[in-house]
Write a sequence for this structure.
């Protein structure tokens, strides 16, 4: 699986988990996503330090995070408190939350 396929798998998992902005969540997680072969077939995990976390656990952890909580629960992020990585993800897929126009 290539990077785009792993991203797509994360996007679909975020959609199934009920994330309000699955594209923002998947983009935020993109650098940490990895594909691992298990007995049940290939599974996408996210790295958390030295550990691999299944995506549902990642979504639960991020739901209470002030940077990505709004992308999961539906809400407005505070541009003053989010980090550069989260800002880039929002800007790429949801520029309207910062009052910006979509790229054409």
């Amino acid at each position: 699986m290539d990077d785009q396929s792993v991203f797509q798998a994360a996007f679909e998992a975020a959609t199934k988990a009920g994330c309000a902005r699955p594209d923002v969540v998947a983009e935020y997680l993109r650098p940490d996503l990895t594909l691992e072969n298990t007995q049940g077939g290939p599974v996408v995990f996210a790295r958390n330090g030295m550990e691999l976390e299944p995506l549902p656990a990642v979504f639960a952890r991020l739901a209470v995070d002030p940077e990505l909580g709004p992308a999961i629960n539906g809400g407005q992020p505070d541009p003053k408190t989010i980090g550069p990585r989260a800002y880039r993800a929002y800007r790429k897929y949801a520029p309207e939350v910062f009052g910006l126009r979509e790229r054409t």
